[in-house]
Structure formats: structure tokens, C-alpha cells
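If it is no trouble, can you show me the amino acids of a protein and the C-alpha cells describing how it folds?
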Amino acid sequence: MARHERLSTLLDMLGQREKIDVEDVAAELDVSAATIRRDLDHLAEQQLLTRTRGGAVANDLAYDLPLRYKTARHVPEKQRISTAAAAFAAKGMVVGLNGGTTTAGVARALAMRPDLSGRGDAPGLTVVTNALNIAHELAVRPNVKIVVTGGVARPQSFELSGPLATRVLSELTIDLLFLGVDAFDPDAGAFAHHEGEASINRLMVERAERVVAVADGSKLGRRAFARICETTQVHALVTDTDADPEAVRAFEAAGVAVQAV
């Protein structure tokens, strides 16, 4: 197991158990106790956990991990989801992207589509985003016009939120929004962990003609702290083949077109 995968696994364990022991985890992951100690020390330096004698306990930040650690989770699934979701876009569209590792993957997939290249000064796509990492990645693409909302950045997710973001979004119309979520329940709707991000994402949904949620199966049938929108406001969901079939049927019954890849 590569180190970044091991770090992500340790944080997952902490999220589920709230407390882990060095010796027990070393046996589970088939690595030395010294390796686990070094990993836990590294994560503690990043303030993602609290070291204890012989192990570690979770803290609040472990619940909302910085993007660089989330990228190691469900990588093959997210790549498939991103590629499939990007196919929804058509040349000339105004596309919205909120923050998240899956939507960042969608941004890369859009940039790689040769049929979306612009002609002359006209862009192939206009992308509206409140995610600094997505804007940074697409800014060098000559076929993409980037509109960044402005606002105050959260270091955990690189998303901009607040009154400045609201003011910009209220003046725009989005043809197609790719909505990344922290949780998506067929009855309760789409959720984010942070209320500020949920508020901006909700406005992006309201400004969009069509909304495509992108979420791996681990996020389905779950709820988080702040609701983004109702399920009926989402037109399509792109997820992976490991998604719970019962949850998929519930989304379809609610009128959401589900594509599992």
C-alpha cells in the first residue's frame, strides 16, 4: 500500500472508530508499528488527528478532510464517474462546477474533450466555479473561459463562499451544473458538511437549467450537516457500479436519471 493510500485509510478508520491503536492498525495493514507511528505523527502535524499514548483519536478536522487527502479515496470510481459525467456537456455551454475531488475530475475530463475546443476567440466552454483548484487547472486551457465567483476561501476544500460569491452567482445563468456532494439521500436531498458551501451550492443549483450530481456509491443514502437542495432539483446522478441498488431505485423513483459506471 502506497503512503498516501495508507494515510487515507488511517483517517477512514478514525472516522469510523474515533480511536485507533498503533499495534492493532499495524497488524490490520500488515506494516510495522514504526511506520504507523510515523504516519500518525505526520497526520497530527497536519492537525487531522490527535496523538495519544499508543495511538490516536479523531478530532473535528478529520471529519472534513483537506482535498489533498480526499483525492486518495475511491480513485478508480471517481475517474469513471468524471469521464461519464463530462459527456453531458455540449460545445458552447455555460457549465457550473462546485468544489470537490469528483468535480475536479469532471473539469479535467471536460478539458480533454477535443470536440469542445473553441474557434477563434469564442471559447468551447464557459466554466463558472467557486473552486480555486478547478479555476487554477482550467485557466491554462485556451478553449475554456473561466468565471470565478469570488468570496472567502476555505482551506479544507478550496471553495469560495460568502456574500461576494452570492453576488456574482445571482447575476449568472448556468446551462449545466455538475454538483459534487458530501452526501445524497433520495428522500432528504443533497448535502455538504459546511453550511457556507451548502449555501453557495444551493444558489448554483437555482441558477442552473440542468443539474447533474456526481457521487461515488459511498455517499448515497447518507445525510450531512447542511442541505444543498432537494432530490427533485437534481435531474441526473452519475455514480459507480458499487452503489446500493436499493438507493439507485429510490433515486429513479424520485425522478432522477441514474447512470452507474
Notes: The two ends are 25 Å apart (CA to CA). The longest strand covers residues 174-180. DSSP finds ten helices and 15 strands in the chain.
